[in-house]
Amino acid sequence: MKSFRPKDGGDAPPGGGRNPSRDFRGERRSNATHGSITDPDARLYRKGPGMEARLGFVGHVLMENRSGLVVDAELTRASGHAERLAGLAMLDRLPSAGPATLGADRGFDAGDFVMELRERQVTPHIAQNTSGRRSAIDRRTTRHEGYAQSQRARKRIEEAFGWIKTIAGQVRTRLRGLDRVRWTFMLAAAAYNLIRLPKLIGATPRCAQRSAEAASACPAPAKTRAISRHLIPARRSRPRNPRRRPSAPAAPFFNDLLIL
Fold it and tell me: Which label site among 80, 88, 105, 156 has the fewest CB atoms less than 10 Å from its CB?
């Protein structure tokens, strides 16, 4: 990450040429003292303990549990509270339809986030985080069968992230700037819904042909949702090669997905 340099401008990489070498071992770098000179909106973020810190953004997805469709998507700067703030913002954008449940991993197990959900009449079906702390989710929530069902269904959100990062090419963004990267991420989430819709539409006639007794077993629309977030790495800064042909823009790729 040669582009992540002190904000005061007092650090210059040694050597000459267009791509000089840079040894930053043992140097303490943080978002408070350093910034990217190629993408100022990118932030240094670590996905978990023992993992390397990378420059990037955080993508958030809100999914409907029964159908697996993406209800809303958001992309923000990487920070410790970005996933909770984005989750509340996506819930506020949904039409008010009465009580609902929200499944999430233990990274969302925080007292303030659980309180905000209850004020919105949303039951927090969040995985308990009991590693050296007390969980904000108690037996009043975990004793119900719906809690176990939400914990099983919320893992389907990884299918959406897997498709967005591999098929839609968001494992490393090709654009710079928060607004542009957010646009491509939300477009990829919409394309994922278009890919999944034919499977859901094809399953509808089979349910309609059943008898009256069996038709009640068809899944009805439910107000159960799951939320998750993933790191979207920022675009790397590379020296331009005058002999290299310019890469094709990302727009035709997404246009082909929409046509499908």
Answer: 80
